[in-house]
Specification:
Layout lengths: L2 H26 L2 H8 L3 E4 L2 E4 H27 L8 H27 L8 H18 L10
Antiparallel strand pairs: 1-2
Helix pairs in contact: 1-3, 1-4, 2-3, 3-4, 4-5
């Protein structure tokens, strides 16, 4: 396994571990902080007023879910055969990592602090996720024709 593959395997494992930690926190430790932070506030979601705590809990869980999906994608990158490794694989890895930091990270901070301006960063993380998936797809195409050595 190449050094780059080992790097991506480690990054994916750390991001997956943290996704489980954040998901467990959402399931077991977030209720009280959300009640303290948002109290009786409500948010309109799809035309329906719901407790802000419910909306922000869902947002936090979305961050953890997307983090896990992309941690697994990073691990998949680490397992790409050496014959098709290339620049697009690294672009995919860095894009997935930046997507996690910006998308999931901004959701975590937004929910835990109430700083809604951070919501402007979240779509940028989503764009990095999209770039990562395109780059991953491109990495599946060999850079040389099959007859070249």
């Amino acid at each position: 396994m190449s050094k780059e593959s080992i790097f991506w395997l480690r990054v994916g494992a750390v991001m997956g571990f943290l996704a489980v930690v954040f998901g467990a926190f959402a399931a077991h430790g977030l209720e009280e902080p959300l009640i303290k932070l948002y109290g009786d506030q409500t948010k309109k979601v799809m035309g329906v007023e719901i407790p802000a705590t419910q909306k922000y809990l869902a947002d936090f869980k979305t961050g953890a879910e997307y983090q896990m999906y992309h941690a697994l994608a990073i691990i998949a990158l680490a397992l790409v055969p050496a014959s098709i490794e290339g620049r697009s694989r690294d672009i995919a890895g860095w894009s997935f990592l930046l997507g996690i930091l910006l998308f999931s990270g901004s959701l975590y901070v937004l929910v835990l602090t109430g700083q809604t301006k951070l919501g402007m960063i979240t779509p940028l993380g989503g764009v990095f996720f999209l770039v990562g998936w395109v780059a991953l797809g491109i990495s599946a195409f060999p850079s040389k024709s099959p007859n070249e050595d």
